[in-house]
């Protein structure tokens, strides 16, 4: 419940600041962060709503014998994939926290009192003795919200990555089907059961990440647009830390869009690869009943797993490219409006 006095409150105060701002330049100083905080609120509400479903999914992965790794080669492939995931998560979280640190440092080198992340305050409070209390609230709130945002992003990405890795294990087992002394019929039945489980898990993932990713994609174009616009108003010579903070923020926001798109795309690719994997098995030497089952399974596999954001559009790398193009188009429009 720490998000109620911190995340939800500071998000509301940021939007009040946007509404009462007299011009576009002052609004741009806060609106990019207000959109980010709003997307975080959607993620928090989604995590609260589907808490029991998340608990069920992790319990299923941990306790169900169907998801256990069978040999050393599977363990090596599994560990290699999640080692890369851990590196991405570490770099992403450290880069995000560095934005908060740079913003706080930049305030110390300014001649006037200014909050690191602007939000609405009663008139005159920023230039009074209340400033350091406001600054302390800003430091605590933004540190917690930044950490929460990063961890929720990687939490959702982990769900997608885990499901994609499970599909990868199914592909490996399909390729080896019929080449060992084990009963091919038993192994094939087990693979079909695992695949049905993974299809169900993918549906659960879509329910959990659908609206958080939708809000992230919708707001990210505006966030990147106003971040670039604000960057043009900051002098690197006068306020280097402030400039670096906004510049770093732009790249982190791009990563925040890219990561879920990448892992959703990976989930689709791994589920599509099952068709090739089942064709590579030793189906020629199998019995007629086994070949018939494989044929029916191949027909079923023709439809890969594709996640959708709020039932509006498919999540994948093409939507990341479109979001970046939209951000540039909005920035060009905003620049023309400000010049005129």
From TrEMBL:
Superkingdom, natural source: Eukaryota
Keywords for the protein's UniProt record, in alphabetical order: Cell membrane, Membrane, Olfaction, Receptor, Sensory transduction, Transducer, Transmembrane, Transmembrane helix
Molecular function per GO: odorant binding; olfactory receptor activity
Signal peptide: none
Keyword Transmembrane: yes
Membrane topology: Multi-pass membrane protein
Main subcellular location of this protein, as a coarse class: membrane
GO cellular component: plasma membrane
GO BP annotation list: signal transduction
Regions that span the bilayer: 87-110, 130-152
Subcellular location as annotated: Cell membrane
InterPro entries xrefs: 7tm6_olfct_rcpt
Subunit note: Interacts with Orco. Complexes exist early in the endomembrane system in olfactory sensory neurons (OSNs), coupling these complexes to the conserved ciliary trafficking pathway.
Family under the similarity heading: Belongs to the insect chemoreceptor superfamily. Heteromeric odorant receptor channel (TC 1.A.69) family. Or2a subfamily.
Function text: Odorant receptor which mediates acceptance or avoidance behavior, depending on its substrates. The odorant receptor repertoire encodes a large collection of odor stimuli that vary widely in identity, intensity, and duration. May form a complex with Orco to form odorant-sensing units, providing sensitive and prolonged odorant signaling and calcium permeability.
Protein name (Swiss-Prot/TrEMBL): Odorant receptor
């Amino acid at each position: 419940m720490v998000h109620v006095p911190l995340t939800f409150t500071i998000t509301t105060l940021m939007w009040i600041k946007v509404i009462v701002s007299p011009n576009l330049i002052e609004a741009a100083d806060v609106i990019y962060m207000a959109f980010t905080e709003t997307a975080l609120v959607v993620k928090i509400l989604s995590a609260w709503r589907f808490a029991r479903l998340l608990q069920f999914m992790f319990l299923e992965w941990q306790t169900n014998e169907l998801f256990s790794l069978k040999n050393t080669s599977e363990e090596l492939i599994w560990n290699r994939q999640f080692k890369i995931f851990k590196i991405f998560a570490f770099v992403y979280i450290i880069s995000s926290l560095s934005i908060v640190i740079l913003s706080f440092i930049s305030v110390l080198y300014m001649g006037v009192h200014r909050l690191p992340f602007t939000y609405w305050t009663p008139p005159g409070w920023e230039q009074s003795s209340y400033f350091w209390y406001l600054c302390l609230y800003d430091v605590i709130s933004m540190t917690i919200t930044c950490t929460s945002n990063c961890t929720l992003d990687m939490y959702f990405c982990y769900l997608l990555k885990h499901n994609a890795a499970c599909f990868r294990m199914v592909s490996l087992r399909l390729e080896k089907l019929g080449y060992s002394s084990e009963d091919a019929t038993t192994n094939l039945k087990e693979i079909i059961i695992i695949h049905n489980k993974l299809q169900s898990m993918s549906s659960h993932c879509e329910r959990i990440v659908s609206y958080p990713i939708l809000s992230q994609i919708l707001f990210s174009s505006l966030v990147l647009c106003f971040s670039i616009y604000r960057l043009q108003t900051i002098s690197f010579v006068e306020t280097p830390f402030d400039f670096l903070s906004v510049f770093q923020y732009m790249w982190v926001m791009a990563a925040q869009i890219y990561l879920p798109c990448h892992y959703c795309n990976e989930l689709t690719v791994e589920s599509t690869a099952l068709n090739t994997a089942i064709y590579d098995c030793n189906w020629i030497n199998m019995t007629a009943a086994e070949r018939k089952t494989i044929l029916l399974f191949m027909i079923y596999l023709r439809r890969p797993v594709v996640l959708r954001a709020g039932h509006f559009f498919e999540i994948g790398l093409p939507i990341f490219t479109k979001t970046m193009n939209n951000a540039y188009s909005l920035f060009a429009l905003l620049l023309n409006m400000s010049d005129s």
